[in-house]
Amino acid sequence: MKKRLAKTVTIFSALVLLSGCASIMGTKTQKVTFDTEPKGAEVFLKDKMTCKTPCTVELVKDTYTSVTFKKDGYDSRTVEIDQGIANIFWGNILVGGVLGSTTDSSSSAMYEYSPDRYYIELKEK
To answer: What are the beta bridge partners of residue 49?
Structure first.
């Protein structure tokens, strides 16, 4: 009986430690690079000017859905930021099962922006 209890505790402890793998090994932010032709366009995330191209911004995953580029003399352009599930999340399901995947899905660690580079051509007005 004691051996069985010890084995159960060991297995449960291992599952708890291994669960949330993407949360532990992944990050809640990701660097995304924006560039335009012509250079120097303002990059707006959530209606806030963030940088001018070319630039790299560290974004909180699962927060942004689109980005707008603006430059005087050119039409503004808004593009969707593509987001998917990080590969590490799938490995976590195999190792940590439902407990691990629940932990990851409650954080931003299970997501990633893909691609992580955007090159946008703006058209003159």
So the answer is: 44
Domain boundaries, the chain: 2-121
Task: Dump strand ranges (E) for 9-73.
Answer: 29-37, 42-45, 48-52, 55-60, 66-70
Per-residue pLDDT tens digits for 7-38 = 655 555 454 444 444 344 457 788 999 999 99
- The pTM for the full model equals 0.65
The secondary structure of residue 102, as a DSSP letter, is H
Q: 67-100 in b/e burial notation, b at 16+ Cβ within 10 A?
A: bbbbbeebeebeeebebeebebbeebeeebeeeb
Q: At 9, list the tokens.
A: 């505790």
Contact call for residues 37 and 69 (beta carbons, < 8 A): no
